[in-house]
Amino acid sequence: MPGLPRRLQQVVPGPERGHWWNEWLDSKQSFPATGNFDLVANAHGVLMIHNEDVVDPGEGFDTHQHRDMEIVTWVLEGTVVHQDSAGHSGLIHPGMAQRMSAGTGILHSERNGAGRAERERLHVVQMWVPPHEPGVTPGYQELDIAAELTGNSLFTVASGLPRDRDRTAITIGNKYAAFHVARLEPGHSVLIPDAPFGHVFVARGSVEFEGSGVLTQGDAVRLTATGGHRVTAVEPSELLVWEMHARFA
Length: 249
Prior knowledge:
Mean pLDDT: 93
Structural class: mainly beta
CATH architecture: Sandwich
Strand order of the largest sheet: 1-20-17-22-15-13-14
CATH topology: Jelly Rolls
Number of helices: 0
Strand content: over 45%
Shape: globular
Number of strands: 22
Order of helices and strands: EEEEEEEEEEEEEEEEEEEEEE
CATH class: Mainly Beta
Helix content: under 10%
C-alpha cells in the first residue's frame, strides 16, 4: 500500500451525492455507480459502491451477473427477496446481515418483497468492496442480528479482518475491511475505529460528529489516516461504518 496522504475528515452532505432514478427506483449514490465502468477511480479505501436505494412495491433488479465482488446489503425498511444461480435464496429485512461473494461469477436478482398492492417500499443500502483474492467459489451468508443491535454500541456486522475471525456476524472475502452498525438512542455515543480509511454514513436520524458538527440522514464522513472520533445521537439514529486498512494502489 502506498504511503498515506495527510489526515483528512471530509463531510459529504447527502444532497451532494449522485442521484439516479427511473419509474420504480430512486438511487442516491455516495460514489458514481450508474453507468460508471471505472469504480476504482472514485473509491475511498476499498469501498467502491455505497448506494441508498428506494424500490417501489413489486419492482426490483432482474437477474444480472457479478464477478469478483463482495456485496453487503443492509435493509432499512421493507424486505429484499434474493435469489441466485448458486441456489441461494433469502428474505432480508431490517436487522439482518447479508453478504454475497460473486467470485468466479454469479447471477442473482433482488426485488422488493412487497407486491404492488401492498404499497410497502423497500429502503436499502448496498455496498461493494473487492475480494483480496479473485476467482474464489461464489458464496452467500445471511444472519439475523437484530438482538445484537440494541446495546447503543458499534457492532461488527461483516468483516474479513483477521482480528475479527471469532467475533463478526458474517465474513467477507476482504482481509482489509470491516463493516459496523450502531443503533443509538439520544445522548448515547460510539467511537469510530482508528484506521487508514473510514466511511461513516448516517442511515437515519441525526448525530453530533466530533470535529464536523451535526450530521443528518444521508450525510457521510470520509476519514483518511484518522479515527477515534466520538459520534453522539441527537435523536434515534443508525450509523453504517466501514473501517478499511488498505486502498486501491
